[in-house]
Amino acid sequence: MDITFKNVNYIYQQGTPFEHKAIEDLSFDIPSGSFVAIIGHTGSGKSTLIQHLNGLVRPSSGDVTIGDFHLTNDSKVKNMKELRSRVGVVFQYPEHQLFEETVEKDIAFGPENFDVPKDEIQKRIREITPDVGIPEELLKRSPFELSGGQMRRVAIAGVLAIKPEVLVLDEPTAGLDPRGQKEMMNMFYDMHKREGLTTILVTHSMEDAVKYADHVIILNNGTKYMEGKPEEVFIQKKALQKVQLEVPDIVQFLNAFEEKFGKRIPYRRQSIEEIASEIQQFLEGAESS
Amino acid sequence: MSNSLIIGQYVPGKSVIHRLDPRTKIIIIFFFVFIVFFANSVLSYGVLTAFALASMFTTRIPMYYIIKGLTPVWFLIVFTFLLHLIVTKEGSVLIEFLGFKIYSGALIQGFAISMRFFLLILVTSLLTLTTTPIEITDAIENILHPLKKMKFPVHELALMMSISLRFIPTLMQETEKISRAQASRGVDFRTGPLKERVKAVVPLLVPLFVSAFKRAEDLAMAMEARGYQGGEGRTKLRELKIEKRDIFIYILFVFVVAGLFFTRNWS
């Protein structure tokens, strides 16, 4: 589903001394099937933004369009449940949402609410649990007996089992160990490719953004600060540092390399291996001449 | 969540009322609550209302905010007024309306009672609007201090109060967070038959309790790790101190009380 924000404003507690503008005149387009990273500091409006995506809040002014659904300040979405079944949101620390007696029941909770037939739910559970890395013997256990990382996986499985078309991920790997982070992100990326999802990743991690996203939106104080392809955005060191963001390690490395060797290797989202061979070529060329 | 009700909410500010010693505020409000019931003439109500309104304006909190925040209470006040209008049968009949007789006594009674209601709620919400929960508990601990001689656990009580007050916003945030997550998983808290809505509370309450217990455990652990062991010999970060402005307010309040008793029975 295509997602469009047009001049969206969101104000918390309007008309009180606590009034606070969370989003200001925000516009962007996310075409169906893209992988978008939304980056910004705490308080930049990321969390408020994602609540617009499945109708948890309505904009104070402006238009939000998600597929056929329109959210404005004065009109109510008639079929909110359908919108929520098509936009799945994995919130920060999703393990806090677990409540059922068994892991299996908790995963089934979302699809049940959206009236997915029982045997279809069972089928989905069998499909998804190996993907997110939950061994089958855990299905009958209580989610509260699991480790933090396993609880996270169960919670994520609970959202994936809804089979949304748009997947919104709010720092899904925060607090996991490095290996778990990598596994988890790869899993999301595979699913994104395989199911043709539209994925929106909210993150602090430049590394994840540069690795997976094909479009990057940088927020600052509730407004759009930069937008574009990762290889365009992430080389603008000065602009990024202005909003307390660092360029990714790879770009930092290339900058340092240029400084030491006087050779500029343009950044085109190469992998580490590709950069290694480019350097090898350069060094070999330098030796032979 | 409950944006409309402001009772219990603190609005930061620098007004004289904000800076008063919390004990002063509590003691004056305590007595104010008593003397409201002594008012019996229009003028005596006038004295009390003037005091309450003057305090309200001194806080510099926008009036529309206070008035709007008391919306649910307005309803109660109007309801009380109407109830008295219908039930009380004293004095002479003023008008007859659809078989109902409205008595003059009823009008006066209804007016008096709703006025009391209004004054009580206005003044007590001014306390919480201008005083942080921590200040209030400090003040209560201090005021109750003499009870310590009777082995009453004053410090522990104050600690319990401040912890529970401290965690109200945290739990509210948590509730909001969990309800957002469950709403995204298709729970409908707002519409549908009552039975379904009651059932929808379970996915909200279970995680909330789990996290509340976890927080309690963490807090206890953190306090113990820092060697906390209660009242004896413990000094305070914020010392309460009676200043000139407090004394001024006490004197002013004595005049208000005197004015009230002076204008009583005037008609």
From TrEMBL, chain A:
Primary location group: membrane
GO molecular function, one term: hydrolase activity
Enzyme Commission code: 7.-.-.-
Bilayer topology term: Peripheral membrane protein
Subcellular location: Cell membrane
Ranges where the ABC transporter domain occurs: 3-246
Keyword terms of this UniProt record: ATP-binding, Cell membrane, Hydrolase, Membrane, Nucleotide-binding, Translocase, Transport
Top-level class of the enzyme under EC nomenclature: translocase
Pfam families attached to this UniProt entry: ABC_tran (PF00005)
Subunit structure: Forms a stable energy-coupling factor (ECF) transporter complex composed of 2 membrane-embedded substrate-binding proteins (S component), 2 ATP-binding proteins (A component) and 2 transmembrane proteins (T component).
PANTHER family: ENERGY-COUPLING FACTOR TRANSPORTER ATP-BINDING PROTEIN ECFA2, HEAVY METAL TRANSPORTER
Family: Belongs to the ABC transporter superfamily. Energy-coupling factor EcfA family.
Record function comment: ATP-binding (A) component of a common energy-coupling factor (ECF) ABC-transporter complex.
Protein name: Energy-coupling factor transporter ATP-binding protein EcfA2
Automatic annotation (TrEMBL), chain B:
Major localization listed first in the record, in broad terms: membrane
Subcellular location: Cell membrane
Keywords, alphabetical: Cell membrane, Membrane, Transmembrane, Transmembrane helix, Transport
InterPro entries with a match to the protein in the record: ABC/ECF_trnsptr_transmembrane, EcfT
Membrane topology category: Multi-pass membrane protein
Source organism, top-level taxon: Bacteria
Pfam families cross-referenced by the UniProt entry: CbiQ (PF02361)
Regions that span the bilayer: 26-53, 65-87, 107-129, 247-266
Oligomeric and partner information: Forms a stable energy-coupling factor (ECF) transporter complex composed of 2 membrane-embedded substrate-binding proteins (S component), 2 ATP-binding proteins (A component) and 2 transmembrane proteins (T component).
Family, similarity comment: Belongs to the energy-coupling factor EcfT family.
Protein's job: Transmembrane (T) component of an energy-coupling factor (ECF) ABC-transporter complex. Unlike classic ABC transporters this ECF transporter provides the energy necessary to transport a number of different substrates.
Name listed for the protein in its UniProt record: Energy-coupling factor transporter transmembrane protein EcfT
Organism: Virgibacillus litoralis
Source taxonomy: Bacteria, Bacillati, Bacillota, Bacilli, Bacillales
